[in-house]
Amino acid sequence: MICSLTDLYQKQKELDEEIARNHQVTYESTRNKRTLALLVELGEFANATRTFKYWSNKGAESKERILDEFADGLHFLLSLGIDQGYVVDSIEVNDDNHSLTDTLLATYELTSIFYSNQSIQNYLSMFISYLRCLFKLGYSWEEAKEAYYLKLKENHNRQNTNY
Fold first, then answer.
1. pTM of the full predicted structure?
2. Other C-beta atoms within 10 Å of 67: how many?
3. pLDDT in tens, 65-107
4. For the chain, domain boundaries
């Protein structure tokens, strides 16, 4: 699956600039916080899927909720890429035959690796792993983009209302 990212990076840059103006922050001053925020959002996404909750018979949360949580993490991934100058037109994601749980764990690990060494290869590996989680759930890139744009609108509204 090929995921086109050009428009998303531009929209994220506009939101990042608005946040920077409103909160007097820079990419550098928030880099570690955005990395931690990505890990937190990855956890919230995993929690919504309930993939790891072997002790429960309760199913996953709604598709809308899962996509909303995914979009939160996508915001931070895009922002980290902009910060480092790693803006790519598209990313190709192939299935790796691992479980969703294993892919989520790999994404955590790859995010930690990126935190320690912010190379473009580590960024792309982290991003691909994150996207792979989405596809393992059977969701499309179009659904993910739609969720991103909904969350983007909400995030702009939050900035306008002193969130």
1. 0.94
2. 24
3. 999 999 999 999 999 999 999 999 999 999 889 999 999 999 9
4. 2-160
Helix (H, G, I), strand (E, B) or coil at 90: strand
Radius of gyration in angstroms for the set of CA atoms belonging to the chain, rounded to a whole number? 15
Res. 163: pLDDT tops 80: no
Residue 160 has pLDDT above 90, yes or no: no
The fold for domain 2-160 equals all-alpha NTP pyrophosphatase fold (1.10.4010)
Burial 35-47 (b: 16+ CB within 10 A, else e): bebbbebbebbbb
Alpha helices in 6-139 (DSSP H): 6-23, 27-49, 63-84, 100-116, 120-136
Which positions ≥6 away from 159 have C-beta within 8 Å? 15, 18, 19, 22
Backbone angles phi and psi of 91, in degrees to 5: -130, 135
